[in-house]
Amino acid sequence: MPKKIHSDSRPFYITTTLPYVNADAHVGHAVEFVRADIIARYKKLTGYEVFFNTGTDEHGIKVFRKAVEAGREPQAYVDEYADRFKKILPILGIGPDIHFIRTTDKHHMAAAQEFWRRCEKKGDIYKKDYRVKYCVGCELEKTDSELVNDRCSIHPSATLELIEEENYFFKFSKYQKDLLRLYENNPKLVIPNSRLGEIKAFVARGLEDFSISRLASKMPWGVPVPGDESHVMYVWFDALVNYISTIGWPDNQHDFEKWWNESGGVVQYCGKDNLRQQSAMWQAMLMSADLNPSQTIVIDGFITSEGRKMSKSEGNVVDPAVVVGEYGTEAFRYFVARELHPFEDSDFTMDKFKNAYNSHLANGLGNLVSRVMKMASSNLAGPVSVSDVVLPENFVKAIDEYEIQNATNIIWEYIGAVDAKIQETQPFKLVKTNKEEAVVIIKSLVSELAVISEMLLPILPETSLKIKNLVETNTSPDTPIFPRRD
Asked: If you write DSSP's letter for every residue of 305-331 in order, what string do you get?
């Protein structure tokens, strides 16, 4: 076992965003799930007690329209898609103890209504007539300055809708100074720093109050507004509350206090198109409800294919389940961890995937494990004792900063160094002339393989355990851990 950095089992809470259930899970969802799982597993490895949350966002106009198009009742429609999202998690190697929340859960809906009441009691909710350009893809209002050729830059193929009705509004503008103060006092609130700069600039330009309801007569699929069932909650106001309802708020104050306050706050993974919602709107809502802010919001880039954003219309969408079916869960997790940038847009093509698999898993890690353990099983009297493995400091620093790619690169640097040591010392030859010296070298190689295995545990958990078992039993693999794919 590695050295535990926090022996007192301090709580740690991490969550993904909740994907809309208007389509199947795509590779972008899978990447976010895997990254959050890597951090959750690393925290467990270093002694934390972890609450890991994901789930599905099931209200809003996009979901309602998809259900109508399919000729389904909205609840039956979201039930089916929520089940599909649940099923993708084990395919991606996501830990079995993950908590899965749905925004149609009765507890969540009640929590969203209580959250509304608290903001209303604070004087932060009011009603007024509303006329705005609206992107259904983002489920967000759009100002003219945000548009390109009168289209949303994120969903350029979708026509903007003009909404004109009476809605409830949240006093977002009231919290401008408080948000700017939050960003200054918490420089790690948003990662990477470039995204923190973006949201600071957005807030500094001035905030407009945003609509938090829709007329139920036009869009009935949502959480009823407390005291006024002629309105349903705007999907973002409802969905963001999942981060606290999933840990028991408002009824279970013991669990809420543990995971929200004692932990130092939630770590949220989200895409760059969620920057405003997660790091400004949600933080202002928490202020209104007199709750502590998030601890860290980690912003992912988009996943592209040959430089183009993935979309069904482009025909370049990658199904993560298909990739895993061909190459395995661990290969997918490796590609996410090492071949994709943790914060910026990254390209995902099957040619790149195959090349990375053969070069770095089959020829790299897999070949190294076979070479070292073949020498060990043939020349050592028994297993090498590796009970005091300590994670390298540079690895710990990288993953503590959510630099998953850098952390994984460090592992492959170790792999390269062990390979180089084999070539330099050639124990497979030395054993014929000086077995005693060769045995010393082979033991050191096994010890270094154990360090590699420990670092791999959060990233490639199955592979890590396979290597650990080989080391503990002093055996070589019967078949390659990662067979080459031609």
From this structure: ETTEE--TTTT----HHHHHHHH-HHH
